[in-house]
Design a protein that fits this description.
490 residues; alpha/beta; Aldehyde Dehydrogenase, Chain A, domain 2; 2 domains; 7-stranded mixed sheet; 6-stranded mixed sheet; 20 strands; binds nicotinamide-adenine-dinucleotide
Length: 490
């Protein structure tokens, strides 16, 4: 793992244009989840630092320069993207070390693809419909011309998880800044360096005025988030994380009637219709283990026609047992460790619960051969009923469940019988049949016969308790905008 040492982590936060230590002087350990070794230190901020960041963001928004100058915004975001591109090799190894991400993913959703996609929101600054002329309307004999104007919401608190830190951080920060908001980014305690890396690049390589973009880090998962969600100077909370914390943030933001935008958990289903080619389809079930299943949109319930169930279980078992996993810096591995010991224990607890509730453990279920690192084996459960805990709750680990169904209606019923509604998949020999089932799923995205919905212009988000609002695409861009209607005498 020698290459992993080739990055230069940023321990400081970005507040009001300055790279700073925590006001308290405290710092905390950043741990490599694959080795359990301390990688280095990060500023351990608290409410005092959050207070300064919010004050700076508020001032930078209220002075109007950033909100009012689209060309300044475009230039700064292009500078930021260029700086990311120039430093992406360092980021690659940092992400492997800090997030336990498989190196392979850093060429895609943990790195290069995301940096390439960063062009998209910035390009919208030029072609977004910032104003719309509604023409003349006669109201009680008074003729008026109306113009609809889109304006930034104000100060955005962006609170993010650890699983795909660059993707989630940028999916919030870029559209928020492109639309003229100012931002306080609070990353997860386990992956602070991804955010402080962005802070350093913004401070050293862009013309962003002080206060426009701030990054505050902390070992305490909740303190700064609690501050941001209650502070009246914050106008919008953009949150990605668990449904439990999202629910809490929504309630807490109610006192100041903040806008809340929530990207939450999932328990997505992949439906294999009875005409599907099982030998071609089932190997893809193992992709649910990518990054140890730590993806909100992974399909962790595979629904299989009852009369083909046994064959599907055998094929899924073969795919699970042949998956390359282990050291995330090995480019052949698709799966590394979980992020921390707490998550590992949580996932192992779900595995025990699955067995206790009568599901059949087909393969995996333990920690595997590694002496160090927060690993859990790729784990496959068969004979799962949709009422079992392992089918209902988000495990956020490498635990795949196979559920039998009777016919298409039954499959749709089971898929939709969930508190969540984030993603899904359908496989069939007939594209039309797969599409018609996909359209019946109550979920924000669906892949049909291996089709991929993910792209910078694809809106992404959840139905039901998977969230509120959409990230990315024009819908995601618009989340950061207010709407004002002007009336002129005509
Ligand atoms: P989490 O909810 O524990 O934490 C997310 C963020 O919220 C972290 O920055 C954390 O420090 C912060 N936080 C914790 N308590 C808080 C509080 N009281 N007030 C304000 N902020 C608080 O989630 P996690 O464990 O970091 O990430 C895993 C979860 O994220 C999973 O549920 C996963 O499905 C979800 N996720 C969703 C998406 C999506 O787009 N829908 C994407 C990635 C991850």
């Amino acid at each position: 793992m020698a290459d992993a040492l080739q990055f230069n982590p940023e321990a400081r936060m970005l507040i009001d244009g300055e790279l700073v230590e925590a006001a308290s002087g405290r710092s905390y350990d950043n741990i490599n989840p694959a080795t359990e070794e301390v990688l280095g230190q990060t500023a351990d901020g608290d409410s005092e630092d959050a207070e300064r960041a919010v004050a700076a963001a508020r001032r930078a928004f209220d002075d109007g320069q950033w909100a009012g100058d689209r060309q300044l915004r475009k230039r700064c975001l292009e500078q930021l993207r260029d700086a990311m591109e120039a430093d992406k090799e360092a980021l690659r190894w940092q992400t492997v070390a800090e997030a336990g991400s498989p190196l392979q993913l850093t060429w895609a959703a943990q790195g290069d693809t995301v940096i390439e996609d960063a062009r998209w929101p910035t390009a919208r600054i030029d072609d977004f419909e910032w104003e719309r002329d509604l023409g003349v309307h006669d109201f009680m004999g008074m003729k008026s011309r109306r113009v609809v104007v889109r304006e930034p919401v104000g100060v955005v608190a962006a609170i993010t998880p650890w699983n795909y830190p660059l993707q989630v951080n940028l999916a919030k920060v870029l559209p928020a800044l492109a639309t003229g908001n100012t931002v306080v980014l609070k990353p997860a305690p386990d992956t602070p360096w991804n955010a402080t890396w962005l802070g350093r690049l913004a401070a050293e390589h862009t013309d962003m005025p002080p206060g426009v973009f701030n990054v505050v880090t902390a070992s305490d998962p909740a303190e700064i988030g609690e501050f941001l969600t209650a502070d009246p100077r914050v106008d919008l909370v953009s949150f990605t994380g668990s449904t439990a914390v999202g629910r809490h943030i929504m309630a807490r933001s109610a006192d100041t009637v903040k806008k809340v935008f929530l990207e939450l958990g999932g328990k997505s289903a992949h439906i294999v219709l009875d005409d599907a080619d099982l030998e071609a389809t089932m190997p893809f079930a193992a992709f649910s283990f990518v990054h140890a299943g730590q993806g909100c949109a992974m399909t962790m319930r595979w629904l299989i026609p009852r009369d083909r169930y046994q064959q599907a279980v055998e094929l899924a078992q073969a795919a699970t047992e042949s998956l390359a996993w282990g050291d995330p810096s090995d480019p052949s591995n698709l799966m590394g460790p979980l992020i921390n010991a707490r998550q590992r224990e949580r996932v192992l607890g779900y595995i025990e619960k699955g067995k206790a509730e009568g599901a059949r453990l087909v393969t995996g279920g333990g920690r595997g051969p590694h002496e160090k690192g927060y690993y859990v084996e790729p784990t496959l459960f068969a004979d799962v009923d949709n009422s079992m805990t392992i089918a209902r709750e988000e495990i956020f680990g490498p635990v795949l469940t196979l559920l039998p169904f009777d016919d298409d209606d039954d499959a749709v019923r089971i898929a939709n019988d969930s508190d969540y509604g984030l993603s899904g998949g359908v496989s069939s020999a007939s594209l039309e049949r797969a599409e018609s089932v996909a359209r019946r799923l109550r979920t924000g995205t669906v892949g049909i016969n291996g089709g991929m919905w993910y792209a910078p212009d694809s809106p992404f988000g959840g139905y039901r308790q998977s969230g509120l609002g959409r990230e990315m695409g024009l819908e995601g861009f618009s989340e950061y905008l207010e709407t004002k209607t002007l009336g002129f005498p005509a």
